[in-house]
Structures are given as structure tokens and as C-alpha cells.
Design goal:
Helix content is about 80%, strand content about 0%. The chain contains 17 helices and no strands. It is elongated, with a radius of gyration of 28 Å. Helix 4 runs antiparallel to helix 5, helix 9 crosses helix 10 and helix 10 packs parallel to helix 16. The chain has 2 domains: about 120 residues, no CATH class; about 280 residues, no CATH class.
Length: about 425
Amino acid sequence: MDEATLHLFGRLGISLVIGMLVGLQRETTEASLAGMRTFALIAIGGTLAAMLDRHFAAGGWILAASVIALGAVVVVSELRLLDETSEDVGMTTAVAIVVVFGIGAYLLDGILIVGVASGVAVAALLQFKPELHAIAGKLGDRDMRAIIQFAVFSCVILPVLPNENMGPLNVFNPFNIWLMVVLIVGISLAGYIAYKFFGESAGVIVGGILGGAVSSTATSISYSRISRRTPPMVGVSTAVIVIASSIVFVRVLIELAVVAPNYLQQLGVPIACMLGSCIVAAILSWLIFRGHNNELPEPTNPSEFKSAIMFGALYALVLWGLAAAQQYLGGEDALYFVAVLSGLTDMDAITLSTGRLVEQSSSDLSSDIGWRLLITASISNLLFKSGIVAVIGGRRLFYRVFGLFLLPITCGGLLLAFWNF
């Protein structure tokens, strides 16, 4: 048996297995339209139709006719079942039949892993119907608005933006700037959606992680207010704020991996040291205040158009500030000044702009200066959040939070003074 024949038999066998897998799932749900044997025949039929089309050089007409014939069979079968049972048999199985036929046809000459993964995905979607409905039930209109807005940002606005440098110092690339907006909004949106499933009954650890995923600064403000209104919540607020501030460095590492993959080790190792010191502080706070449950304050929609525009403008401003400081002011002091100002309220903009400039071969910003700018910005960010806590949450909360923040702040100072990577 030659290699071509073996290939055909192999693809027919894979189609058979995929059809049986989907059909077995349908039989466990007592679907009356099609079961294991029917789906196996449909998958094999798709592969055979693709073989006939290729053999007779039909240019797709045999496949098209097969799909039409299959659709007619499905419609007749559904009408018959509806007439016999007087119940709506639903569209899920009917759509699955057409999809499995398409997978069978694709498997003839398509990429094997893609076809197999598609078949498994169909079976999984059919099997996890209750879980998917439960997820949909937890998402309200506000949550769907956030998801749709993110889809608009990433799939509608991003592709039409020009991908070229322009403006003062030739550092403004609309596509890249908005790509950074999509990245940050996506990270924050993941935390926002996670809140819908865990936030209402979050403990200290989950509350801090979710808060840091959405916005550590906003979390610091929210829990400072809670601590002011409810003094017994000072301990819990301390733990959540410190844990949320630790997640900031996880975000920084993720962002660096995206925008500066070639320099991730040089930029990421000092950041990992800061993360480690923050984790130690977070563990200490959790050990002191564990056992407390809390209700995570509901975060704002991270994909609001106004917020996205503001972040995009901030990122572009920081990018220009770093480039201008390099070209016009000279020396490192100006760069550190930009880092301090940018890090006050947000680490995302300075991280993305620094990482992108280090990655670009045309930039004079070295990785050694880059990580120092990020450490400086992170210390500025921790000091700013300490100030927020002092003003909004009061002295008791400030003493506890700042006492724990001293660990990463000291770590950052030691890195700047002695680290030579």
C-alpha cells in the first residue's frame, strides 16, 4: 500500500474518531436528532466528499452540493421529529452536524492538529452547556458592554490605525500606541471579569490579586475608604493593598515579555527581585490578617473609551518624554525624572514605553538604564500609594501599609545602589 493510500485511510480513521466522539456526547444528552453512528457517518461523509471533489477536479461543487444535501436531510429530520414529539428539538445538534461534516472535509488535506482540535472543541462546547450558561448568567449588561468595547478596541479600531512613526521626534506610532492600550485593557478586563465570579465572596488573597489585576491604585483608594468608614477593616485593607501592589510587578513582567522579549532577562530579573520582596511583604500581611473575608469593592469598567484614550495619551506622553530627555536634556537625571512622574499613578505606561525603547535597535536607551528607570518608577508608585493611604485611610492604615512597603522600597534602593547586571 503506497503512502498516498495510507494517508487517505489515516484521515478517514481520524474523521471516524472525531465523529464518534461528538456523537457519543450527543447520545449522553439523549439528543434525538443524531447519535454516535450518525455523527461518525457525517464526519466520514465530509472526508469522502472532499476526496470526490479532488478526484473529479470539481472545484468545490461536489462539496457544496453535499452540504446542501446534508442541510436538507437535517431540516427534514427536524420537521419529522417536531411533528412526532410536538417539541422544539433545538438547533445545537443540527449546527454540530454541519460543523462535523466540515471538519471531516477539512481533514483530507488540512493541518491535522487543527482538524483534531476543532473536533474536540465541538465536543467540549456541547458537553459544557450548563457551565457556559452559568457563566453567561453571571454577566450582566455592564459586563457585556465591557467585553464588546474591548472587541471594538482590538478588532475594529486597531486594524485601521497607521503603523508608522510620526510626530515630534518620530516616536508616535498610532498602531503601536493603541496596541499597548489593547494589551493593558485586556489585562484589566480579565481581572474585571474574574471579579464577577470571585469578588463577591473574595478572601484577602483573592481580593488582593483581583484588585491588582484591575488596578492596584484604585484598590488602594477603595480599601482606604473602607478602612476609614470601618476601623475594624484596617487589617484586611492592609493585606489587600499590599497583595494588590505585588500583582503590579507580575503585570510589569507580562508587559515586558510582550514588548521587549529579547531583553526580558536584563529587564526582568531586577523586577523579579522587587516582586519577591513584595511577595514576602504580602505573606507577612496575610499571616497577620488571614481568616478575614471581605467583599471586594466592585471595580469600574476598564474598557471605557475615555479611560482607554487617557491611557493611550499617557503612554504616548511618557514615550515622548523619554525620547525628549535623551535627545535634548542629555544625561540620566532627566530620564529618572520622567520615570518618577510616570510611576506616581501608574506603572503600565512607563513599563511599555521603556521596554519598547530598549527593544528598538534605533534607540539609545540601554537595558541597564531601562531596568533602573522601572525600579525608580516602582518606588515612586509605592510611595504615591502610601500617600493615598495616609490621606484617605488615616494614620493606622498608613503605618501598617508603609511598614510593609518598606521592604520592596529598600530592595529597590539596594538594587539601584549595588546591582550590576
